[in-house]
Amino acid sequence: MPRTAPAATTSAPTRRHLLLAGAFGVASLAALGTLAPARADDAVWTEEFLTRAETREGFLVDAMDEWQVENAKFIIAVIKGHGLDEQAATITLATAIVESWLRNYEPAVDLDSGGLFQQRPSMGWGTYDEVRHKKRAVDAFLGLGDHSQAPGLTQLSPDYHQWGPGAAAQAVQISAHPERYAEQMPAAKTLWDRYAADVAPYTD
């Protein structure tokens, strides 16, 4: 899929807020505060967070916006909730970086693909809404989602610890550019090291 140049980090209001303000026309910038990740003080992952439409502007591991950070943390939380380890997390994170720059991509611009992993309903990954629901998308990628008929990581490469970097991700994604997953493994490892210790397992 085509990629645009990574977005620069800006002060408030953020570039994302300005883009959204343009998209919604007369909506005031003050109202855009409600578009921050819908996560309560007690760290509950809400349904709004799991399904909210987002834009995709770019990815730099040290210039991530609030959505990218929260999506990385959420992936780690789901991985831990399934009792899986760092290797599973880095494979999953690297895949989401490649496919969506850690944004829950809403428009179907590449055939019918969408969501964090650009999963396609026509290929058995779930419905239009399910591939854009973050928990279901992560579960499907892992091969642990009852809603998905497509095989995932734990089904295609249960011995993924023995696989080369990126190979396990490619087994699931069947990408035309398999080398891209290995390229993002260092960034994925950085995200795990940065956030894993402070993220509780998510099992809902």
TrEMBL record:
Q: Which domain of life is it from?
A: Bacteria
According to UniProt, the name of this protein is Peptidoglycan-binding protein
